[in-house]
Amino acid sequence: MSQSLWKCHGPVMAAGAVCILVNGQGIGPLWLTGIALLVVGMLMRWAMTRAQRPSGDEAPPLALDVPVEGRWMARNGPATKVPSHTHNLAQTYAIDLARRPAPEPVWFWPVARRPESYPSFGEPLLAPADGRVVAASDGQRDHLSRSSLAGLFYVLAEGFVRSLGLPRHLLGNHLVLELDDGVYAVFAHLRRHSLKVAVGDRVTAGRPLAECGNSGNSAEPHLHFQLMDGPDVTSARGLRFTWRYRDDDGREHDGVPADNTCFVPIRTTTADRPDPYAAP
């Protein structure tokens, strides 16, 4: 019951912000109400985040296939920092992947780029193991990148506003896959209308699921990937995973690449797997 209540922290904080913004009489009942709602909302968010911290008896990392093909760069991953993002929304061990090479960030111009300017955009995303699709959404638009100093400030403000709403406003177009091991994989920031599966579909490792996009709380087209112990990102806990990959120096690894590491996947087997680049 309490956890269901904590999920409402966004609307509570939004109501507080509205009270403060519409208040035109200085410090008074409406202003104090707004401050109180903001404080209550932040406490609710803190309680929800605390409840999603991993327990002390975590399972060993689950070995999975890398859910992309080609050369990608790891960002915001658990090999560098835990939590890699935040415990909130089960992102403790989440990782971001972007195709490389890609346009370099700039200070002032262009302020933003079209998502098609990035090689990640439209890349196929693959099932990391056998499983079943339990949630899927791909109706949100792919927005411009936030590729400048102004874009950075904008995405920070935008991320705060998105956090006041439902999780889908942060995740963008997304897919949740229940793996046969009983854990759940999340793919976020998918390209609009790119889903190749539907809720209830059974998938095998290596099957194309969707395409990489730039929807939701995303500064440039990339894949946000995480594992959870339940299907609901607002109540589940993040889980660890390992991949087999080869870095730019040719060394092979079992684990998760550190931030800013460029790598290519090593497949455990390629037999009977569909070609993600093949025409439908």
UniProtKB/TrEMBL annotation:
Keywords recorded for this protein, A-Z: Membrane, Transmembrane, Transmembrane helix
A molecular function GO annotation: metalloendopeptidase activity
Membrane-spanning residues: 12-43
InterPro entries: Cell_wall_metabolism_enzyme, Dup_hybrid_motif, M23ase_b-sheet_dom
Domain M23ase beta-sheet core residues, every copy: 157-229
Protein's name according to its UniProt entry: Peptidoglycan DD-metalloendopeptidase family protein
